[in-house]
Amino acid sequence: MNALPPASGRPSLAGFANVAEPFVAAARANPERTAIICGGHEYSYAEVNARSNQICALLAARGVRPGDAVAYFLPNCAALIEVYYAIQKLGAVAVPVNARSIAPELEYFLRTSDATVLLFSSRFAEVVSAARGEVDGLRSVLCVDGAVEGAEDLGPLLDRFSAAEPELFREPEALSRIQFTGGSTGAPKAAERTHRADLTEFEGVFGSNGMFADEAKVVLIQCPLEHHGGHSWFGSALALGATLVLCSSFDPDEILTSIQRYRVSYIILLPPTTYVRLMAHPRLGEYDLSSVRLVQSSAGGTSPEIVADIYRTFPNAIMNYGWGQTESGLGCSLVLTREMALKRTPRIRSIGRPMPLMEMRIVDEDGQPVPDGVVGEGVCRSAAVMRGYHGQPELTAAGFTADGWWRTGDLMLRDSDGYFYLAGRKRELIKSGGENVFVGEVESVVREHPAVLDAMVYGEADPVLDEAVAAVVELRPGASLTLAELQCFCRGRLAGFKKPRSLTVLPSLGRDFAGKLHRAEVIRRSRDARARLASLKRRPELDEVLTQVHSDPAVYRVTMPMLPRHAATTNAYLVEGTQGWLLIDPGAANEVAHGSLLRAVEHLQAEVSAVYLSHEHADHSGLVARWLGESPLVRSAAAFGPSRVSERFTAAGFAADEVILYAGLQLRACPAEVPELPSLLVGDGDQLTLAGLEMQVVATPGHTDGHLCLYLPKSKLLFSGDHVLFELPPALFSETGDPVANYFESLRRVAALDVETVLPGHGRARGRDELATRLRRLRRHHERRQAELVALVAAHQPVTAAELIITHRAPHREWTKVAPGRRWSIASTTLARLEHLVASGALATTIGPDGLIRYHVESN
Fold first, then answer.
1. Are 220 and 245 in contact (CB under 8 A)?
2. Distance CA 207, CA 384 (A)
3. Tell me, what DSSP letter sits at residue 210?
4. pLDDT value at position 566?
5. Cβ neighbours of residue 429 under 8 Å, at least 6 residues apart?
6. Which of 29, 347, 548, 581 is deepest in the core (most CB within 10 A)?
């Protein structure tokens, strides 16, 4: 095949009103033709249709009616197709479930779709058993390939039902399928697709790839049939009366043998890098692949090298490349020629022109069309577009323009010949040094490097550029690549501000079967890899990072830098329980700290099941989001309240620039994203079971309003956070009530506990006697400082807090030389003591016309 046939010659599906109708017509026209080949078995159209009719009759007998949702959880197999057409004939709604789903995901799919029946494979019995008890509304649970506990065996049940053709449900605008999206971020959304939408999609697909004109019509599908791409191809092929060769997984011998044995003419393997794995088979040359006429790939992950290799491997084929979405149904397609690959023509980066029955255009932020060559958002219009998101009317409304075009969320441009180019997702635009960088453009260039098999680009926070371009690559076998080499390669191909500023090499980027990357997961893995290297460079020996500090339960201290090049450290603790590990205070958000904790977790093979936070400060809470799993963060209900820094320090007489400094430090000290995380809010005296260990919460405000200590009574173990520090007294940043009185009460609470071992937020472990001594000294320290303040006020009254701190305790020139964080610490603690002295009656205040609070000694 040298070119695709004109799409205008395709057969029309416009006269059908149910997606099963073209299949039924094909079964009537050629009942003995092989419809499906799977696992060495061949099934004719008559056999597949008859079994589908029996399943349809069974579902009807179980009370399934038009509009009811029926889910199937199946690998690639003939049963999946039989079940799908049975659902369609009845007018019910098919809910394909990803075959890789775990129990919580299956539960989510069933709940979100309101499924009433579930059909599944015995290989997924354990997942089904774990999920079904959490889902109300399931009337029937049927196993398609045998008897398993808690489910009915479909096979014997079907013997009771006729294989006669049922009366076909025919409403083209009725819902046919709820397809969960496989997007790159966020929870899967449930796209509602009608019979008309899928029929239009089938026609557009076989019109764009020319399958309708292929004489052989033997189609090999390796991607999951429950995925939108797999569904699109099997629906299109069976609508034309083609033979499907199904592969349930990537097995190069099975795929190559099937191509040779069944004379396969069309193949679709996903993701695109799967072709690279296939072509790396050591005995590739032993197979006859001359029957292949078309090789299908999807947008994302294809490079000129892959295209050239495909043409060498399949000498009689052409390569078709497509872009589309679950929501849009159809999209763009393009034949990638051998000449494009060898000459690296710019059009090889295109995603093609719109498929038949699809309109596309590029618009600006106001929805107005932009000229050719200008990047904007791609929007599309077609009968193939979904109806909306199931149960999410607001999200649906936001996805469509006022005149009915679907907003793809993809940034694109169109050239003067009508070819579209993908620049990236709207939310993936990188703002680097004030310039817009489109990830798609950079990814295309990086993939052209001969060492690179696949690539992803994202924006990484940068103190100078705001965002810097970060590249993550998967290399070809045996290849190597440095950042300097990649930057040199990009020179002349990309503007300087678009070049990657960092490079991470991963074993695999993990594209799914649609060729999509789960970007958040790749970014997490990239950051983990860089952090691990940073920690190894700073502290190569693990015993510099990890120390066991308690045996029952086993507790390990992870020592992490507060700042990347700072000597001061913070302690995180990993506590081994009977149900996983408890992580206490994950540490500061810098690469060395991040990498240190990663190395510790990996060495201990710790499965973190709970994360506990002693208090708000960033050197303890900065990495919380990285380690938070399905369980919520355990933190104080009093933490992360509204700050009064500006109000307090302005009234205390500090200059405006000093107040701004303190307010900024407060914002950085308490990361704003932490209170947005799912949290279990606790308070004094709460009894918890974390990682299977019983413990008690002890509220200890003073250092911060939301400070907590964690006490394990059985082991007499106290995690004291920054409430009790042994090298220096903790600063008092609390802003609620009387901070010093609160702190003294917190010291009393800790003193009342039966403690043998104290594990503080900074420094080494301490024993019972050291704790008792330290508690007494901390109280005496504050009492002594308060007496000094009373004397100082008496000598200079009336006096503001700022005057006391800056003028009377240290010369101004020395104060400005004190580090900003230290100044904030001194000012906050001094202000807390003054407020306590007022509350206790030792001092009094007046507020002058300037609004400043001045202190004087209370007269008797």
1. yes
2. 14
3. -
4. 60
5. 411, 436, 437, 438, 439
6. 581
Sign of the dihedral through C-alpha 204, 209, 212, 213: positive
Query: Are 160 and 154 spatial neighbours (Cβ–Cβ below 8 Å)?
Result: no
Dump the DSSP string for 656-694.
HHHHHHHHHHHHHHS-TTGGGS-EEEE-TT-EEEETTEE
Residue ranges per structural domain of the chain: 45-170, 429-535, 547-778, 780-857
CA dist 353 → 84, 210, 271, 420, 657 (Å): 31, 15, 21, 6, 57
542: closest CA among 567, 524, 561, 559? 559
Q: Are strands 843-847 and 853-857 parallel, antiparallel or unpaired?
A: antiparallel
Tokens matching residue 794: 């008496």
CA gap 390, 578 in Å, rounded: 40
pLDDT value for 105:
83
Q: Does domain 45-170 have CATH number 3.40.50.9100?
A: no
Alpha-carbon gap, residue 812 to 648, rounded angstroms: 21
Q: If pLDDT is split at 50, 70 and 90, which confidence band does 217 have?
A: very high
**DSSP conformation class of 761:** S
- At 476-501, the pLDDT tens digits run 999 999 999 999 999 878 878 789 99
Alpha-carbon gap, residue 173 to 91, rounded angstroms: 11
- Which residue type, as a one-letter code, is found at position 735? E
Average pLDDT over residues 560-582: 87
CA 457 – CA 290 distance, rounded (Å): 37
What the block records as the tokens of 340 is 């494009």
Judged by DSSP in three states, 292 sits in coil
% residues pLDDT > 90 (the chain): 69
* Amino acid, single-letter form, for residue 402: A
Task: Say if CB 334 and CB 320 are below 8 A apart.
Answer: yes
Whether residue 454 contacts residue 474, with contact meaning beta carbons closer than 8 Å, is answered with yes
Phi and psi angles of residue 689, each rounded to the nearest 5 degrees, phi first: -125, 110
The single-letter DSSP state of residue 719 is E
Q: Tell me the average pLDDT of the chain.
A: 90
Peptide bond into 271 cis (omega under 30): yes
Structure tokens, 504: 């991470």
Please count the residues of the chain. 860
Does an H or E element contain 199, and which?
helix 195-209
In order of 325, 471, 473, 635, the CA distances from 522 in angstroms are 21, 11, 10, 29
Domain 780-857 CATH class label: mainly alpha
185 has a pLDDT exceeding 50: no
DSSP one-letter string for 822-833: HHHHHHHHHHHH
Residue 840 and residue 857 in contact, taking contact as beta carbons nearer than 8 Å: no
Q: Are 197 and 384 in contact (CB under 8 A)?
A: yes
E strand intervals along 260-349: 266-268, 294-298, 318-324, 331-336
Span 513-527, average pLDDT: 83
pLDDT score, position 703: 93
Residue 563 has pLDDT above 80, yes or no: no
User: Where does 30-176 have alpha helices with state H?
Assistant: 45-61, 78-90, 103-113, 125-132, 154-158
By the 8 A CB rule, do 315 and 290 touch? yes
The predicted pLDDT at position 183 comes to 45
Residue 106: which residues within 8 A CB-CB, separation 6 or more?
73, 97, 127, 128, 131
Write down the architecture of domain 547-778 according to CATH.
4-Layer Sandwich (3.60)
Q: Which residues contact 668 (CB under 8 A, 6 or more apart)?
A: 618
Peptide bond into 540 cis (omega under 30): no
Among 234-248, 620-634, 720-734, name the one with the lowest average pLDDT: 620-634
Q: How far apart are CA 810 and CA 398, in angstroms?
A: 59
CATH architecture type of domain 429-535: 2-Layer Sandwich (3.30)
Beta bridge partner(s), residue 467: 461
200 HSE (CA, 13 A, CB side): 23
Mean pLDDT of all residues in 680-708: 94
Q: Which two tokens stand for residue 428?
A: 């993936």
104 in Cβ contact with 131 (< 8 Å): yes
